[in-house]
Specification:
The structure holds two protein chains of two kinds. Chain A is α/β, with parallel strands linked by helices. Chain A has one domain: PAC-like subunit (Rossmann fold, 3-Layer(aba) Sandwich), CATH 3.40.50.10900. Chain A is 34% helix and 24% strand. Chain A has helices at 35-46, 97-110, 142-150, 164-175, 193-206, 214-218, 220-226, 228-240; strands spanning 2-3, 11-15, 24-28, 50-57, 65-67, 70-72, 75-79, 83-88, 115-123, 135-139, 154-155, 179-186. In chain A, the strands form two sheets. Chain A has a ten-stranded mixed sheet with strand order 1-2-4-7-8-3-9-12-10-11, sandwiched between helices. The radius of gyration of chain A is 17 Å and the shape is globular. Chain A starts with a strand and ends in a 14-residue tail after the last helix. By secondary structure, chain B is α+β, with helices and mostly antiparallel strands. In chain B, 16% of the residues lie in helices and 43% in strands. In chain B, the strands form two sheets. In chain B, strands 1-2-7-6-5 form a five-stranded mixed sheet, with no helix packed on it. The chains are: A alpha/beta, B alpha+beta.
């Protein structure tokens, strides 16, 4: 096991194997509808991704996740030759999001990632009545924005973005790493596997990643039941970070 | 000589209310921290939400596997509801790889308090995409005519 770059005193990334260079890095963090986490979990099983690194931080609650009797960090990076995927199995405390996400982005930059893509959702009040979910995109610079528009992604033109994807986007823009956020219309407070599937379909459109979502849709009810506890804890963190600002209309300042 | 800045009365009041907020948060967490599964009653507490608008209170609950004709919504009194919903299949801890606990569940059950007066007799209920939606008209107050 290799010690990764120590990018911050509070947050460390420990590499378990050689990390591929120049690939796409994806993020699936707990947020509205758990869209990113559900999409990430599906990708891990569908693409048979392996844990390549994990995050260790004093800022996280004192918890580990046990899988097959062995301990794991709740925030891990999975991957193969083509992709890296950072995912959290627990609600990230609102106050820890900034340092954790920045460290992950710095780590990704040190691996010369091609681009960073956050998968998440955007809550809509009439979600229950929407059959065809729209997925919106935003990008860290105009060139990337143009590219995703040309690939058919509808741009989220105006609005607030709150949560890990907001930090990823802003920080990537600052340090010059191309970044994209994909946001599917979703439930605010309920796990939304359909929105996760919509996000993955859009991801397939803009990258070379191939992932089938049929099993994700088939297992929708099982996933909703399984994701309840993480959703409940995520709701509390979303309240702390004032997530409902995403419903707000921004004041235009040019 | 000490260079420590003298605290104003406002700083002291701010600190006091800050620590009160922290304690309130800890107390609230302690009160609501409980498993969402009730092994004794074999029930699961659903995720739920309440939206209060000027005309109506909308209570929703996430009920995966719920059978449409086996969802009951009972007013408990003027300002509380009980939701009971039978699922199409039994769910066991083992289904999620949990082997240190035993139990099977086939019913969602929860009670929820409505924060404003509502007309329980005129509630409307629908189940779509496994989400139960209960619409409760708010009890009208009185209107002041606008001249």
């Amino acid at each position: 096991m290799a010690e990764g770059l120590k990018l911050s005193e509070d947050v460390k990334i420990i590499e378990r194997q050689k990390i591929p260079s120049g690939v796409t890095m994806l993020f699936g963090f707990p947020d509205v509808g758990l869209v990113g986490v559900i999409a990430a979990s599906h990708m891990i099983s569908e693409l048979n991704l392996r844990e390549v690194a994990y995050l260790d931080s004093k800022l996280l609650p004192p918890l580990i996740v046990l899988h097959e009797g062995l301990p794991h960090s709740p925030i891990r990076i999975f991957g193969n030759h083509d992709v890296l995927l950072a995912v959290s199995e627990t609600a990230v405390p609102a106050g820890a999001i900034q340092p954790i996400v920045r460290t992950l982005v710095d780590w990704g930059k040190s691996k010369n990632v091609k681009e960073m893509i956050s998968m998440s959702g955007i809550p809509v009040q009439n979600r229950q009545d929407i059959d065809e979910l729209k997925v919106f995109g935003a990008a860290s610079n105009s060139s990337v924005l143009k590219t995703i528009q040309e690939k058919g992604v509808e741009v989220l033109k105006e609005g607030y973005m709150v949560g890990p994807q907001a930090i990823i986007m802003h920080y990537c823009a600052r340090i010059g790493v191309p970044a994209i956020t994909l946001l599917a219309q979703c439930f605010y407070n309920y796990p939304d596997p359909e929105a996760a599937a919509a996000t993955l379909k859009e991801l397939v459109k803009i990258t070379d990643i191939k992932v089938d979502v049929s099993t994700l849709l088939e297992k929708g009810e099982e996933i909703r039941l399984r994701a309840r506890d993480v959703m409940k804890r995520t709701q509390k963190e979303m309240a702390k970070m004032k997530k409902t600002q995403e419903y707000d209309i921004p004041l235009y300042v040019s | 000589m000490s260079t420590r800045k003298k605290r104003s009365i406002f700083d002291i009041i701010d600190e006091y209310f800050g620590s009160l907020d922290e304690w309130a948060e800890i107390f609230r967490e302690a009160m609501i921290e409980r498993p969402s599964w009730n092994q004794r009653a074999s029930t699961i507490e659903p995720l739920r939400d309440i939206l209060v608008t000027p005309d109506v209170v909308i209570v929703t609950a996430d009920l995966p596997y719920a059978e449409e004709n086996k969802v009951q919504v009972k007013p408990l009194d003027g300002n509380a509801l009980e939701i009971i919903a039978k699922m199409r299949r039994k769910v066991r801890f083992a289904d999620f790889g949990i082997t240190h606990q035993a139990g099977e569940f086939q019913t969602f059950r929860c009670q929820t308090r409505i924060p404003v007066p509502v007309d329980m007799k005129n509630m409307e209920i629908r189940l779509k995409r496994g989400i139960l939606e209960i619409r409760l008209p708010r009890k009208g107050g009185y209107r002041i005519p606008t001249e």
